[in-house]
Here is the input.
Amino acid sequence: MLRIGLTGGMGAGKSTVARILVERGAVLVDSDVIAREVVAPGTAGLTALVDAFGSDILAADGSLDRPALAAKAFATDEARGILNAIVHPLVGKRTAELIGSAPADGIVVQDIPLLVENGLAPFMNLVVIVDAAEETRLHRLVEFRGIDEADARARIAAQATDTQRRAVADVLLDNNGANGEIDAAVHRLWDERLIPFEHNLRTRTPAPQPAESPVVEANPEWPAAARRIIARLAVACGADARSIEHVGPTAVAGKPAEDVLDIRITVADAGVADGLRDRLAEIGFPRVDSAVHRELGAVEVRHATADPGRLANVIVAVEA
Here is the structure.
């Protein structure tokens, strides 16, 4: 199963991208929908909120009056903590249920407005950011959603910045154009990257790499792409990794190189390296081969990415 994290600023067009992906066959897990579902009338979540904040957070029909809850829950840090302690576990549990019910060969798109703010990018196989200029988003919110301009600006300001979102973006979809212009890019993403990535991930097959890639001019995006891979590897390896670092030609600023990233994980012994085999394959780095450098007394195990859109090798090396 391939897990895609989808996010973008308010008014960027995230819902449009999600709709197209669902039409192509993705399983959508929408955090906003889940957040409403777990506090619907008759749920344990709504009962817990009433117990914590009082019955005056209910509307006349017994549903949650969100503005009334917000007035209380966001009044102090303590109240916000109580709200989060009630809602977040319920959302997490329901999210896990939906992901668990998806088919083994599914492409799960997790629509998470606060993906960046909550530090969830490293837990996804791929992060897709829908990008649009702030003024474009503001215009859409005011003109098409009827949100007051001052309110729209305040909501945008409360979210992650464009720079923060772009830093975690494996895929950046430009949605500054007219309605419908982004559609072709989403279809290409599905056909050329998501479908083969899912197949490779499920079958533990590395994405094809040419025997010799052409040397290209230094790409200023290489360090950021390496940081995203390192963040995922850190989650998978946990305390078993002594260090994880970007190495090789692409780690040298300004140096032309083959467009393939090299990441090195240093571990304590060969047993630890072998123990990482399944964990790395599960996040999209199946094992390719291993080598023993007898003259150095070193063991290295190579994994390679299953993602055809960002070629990378991961070397697991035993600490000398």
